[in-house]
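check this:
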Amino acid sequence: MECEACAYYEYDEEEDAYYCSVNLDEDDMARFMSRAYKRCPYFKNGDEYRVVRRQM
């Protein structure tokens, strides 16, 4: 998956680990964990400079 580039992929200093911060209900979490998706439906490009590059 493309987690490293996702806006929801956040670092937790207490756990010293990255995690997905999308708030999923129980059914969505089960589907997500079973890998029923080919691509993550919650992916949001975390590239802050994407808009700027389009304006240039």
Residues 12 and 18 are 6 Å apart (CA to CA). The chain is about 25% helix and 15% strand. The first strand starts at residue 9 and ends at 12. The chain has a mean pLDDT of 82.
